[in-house]
Amino acid sequence: MDLNIDASLTYTLGAERLALVALEVAEYDGQTVTEDCLEIADAALRDIDGEDRVGKRKWVRVRDDKFTLRYRAQVQVSRAPAKLDILDAVPLDELPAEVFSFVRPSRFCQSDQLGIFATRRFGHLSGGKKIRAITDWIATEMEYVLGHSDGGTSLLDTFASRKGVCRDYAHIMCGLARASQIPARYVSAYGLSVDPPDFHAVVEVWLNGCWQMVDPTGMCSADEIAVIGVGRDAADVPFMETPDEAQFVEQRVRVTSK
Fold first, then answer.
1. CATH code, 144
2. In contact, 6 and 254? CB cutoff 8 Å
3. Do 110 and 210 fall into the same domain?
4. N or C: which end of the chain has fewer CB within 10 A?
5. 200: pLDDT strictly greater than 90
6. Which domain holds residue 40?
């Protein structure tokens, strides 16, 4: 599928006039960036690698406190939806070193607190069938509610309330997968069918020796997602972070298909 992405944002920055942004589509398996353009007026820029060397981030230092950015891209996505039911889990002692860290709990994803629940609810299943059951549980138990959570909301908060947005759904998915000893990582992305339009969060799980993409909100299929970056949880892949206070002015994300 061919995706057209158009994102813009405006913030007022603090005294440092510095921001680290991560919203350019990554060169990544299953997707090819055919064209992209990042426009930031009157700024000094420096690229650094994204987490786990997926994608890139950009340091931006502006001359005044007004920070305005526009990003446009065309992406060909060839990624097929995972056939979860036929995929096997990889034993813990056979996981690659770079994958094993995604079994562990993290700042916003305290998966070690869900072990008993995961065993009781999904312990009779294995591999992709277990992941399928987790996504079905999320679809039944979770309610997509704008404004219910914020940047400090963790997996445990969401598990208690059963409400949230894509960020919270991704944390629940990662937490239950990790509690089931299946590596899972948080993915920041653009998605075609995200409603309301915004940056999106999905999950990759390690099955059959590679990463398989799952959208726990059910909004997007794998071929409708353009990956920006990956991490342990939302703390690793914010679309923007600053060393001091930043005030929101305007933000728009639009994803269409040809």
1. 3.10.620.30
2. yes
3. yes
4. C
5. yes
6. 2-78+239-257
Helix (H/G/I), strand (E/B), else coil: 209: coil
Q: How many domains does the chain have?
A: 2
Q: How confident is the model at residue 179 (pLDDT cuts 50, 70, 90)?
A: very high
* Shared domain check, 248 and 151: no
Q: Are residues 56 and 151 in the same domain?
A: no
CATH number at residue 50: 2.60.40.2250
pLDDT tens per residue, range 32-91: 999 999 999 889 999 999 999 999 999 999 998 899 999 999 999 999 999 999 999 999
Structure token digits, residue 64 = 């005044």
Q: Has this prediction a pTM greater than 0.85?
A: yes
CA distance 30 to 201: 17
Using DSSP, state whether 232 is helix, strand or coil: coil
Q: How far is CA 107 from CA 81, 86, 111, 112, 161, in A?
A: 29, 32, 10, 11, 19
Interhelix angle 166-179/115-122, rounded to 10 degrees, is: 80
CA atoms within 13 A on the CB side of 242: 19
Residues in the chain: 258
Pairing of strands 163-164, 143-144: parallel
How confident is residue 4, by pLDDT bands cut at 50, 70 and 90? very high
Cα distance between residue 158 and residue 31, in whole Å: 31
81/21 Cα distance (integer angstroms)? 29
Looking at residue 41, what is its pLDDT? 85
Verify that 248 and 211 share a domain, yes or no.
Answer: no
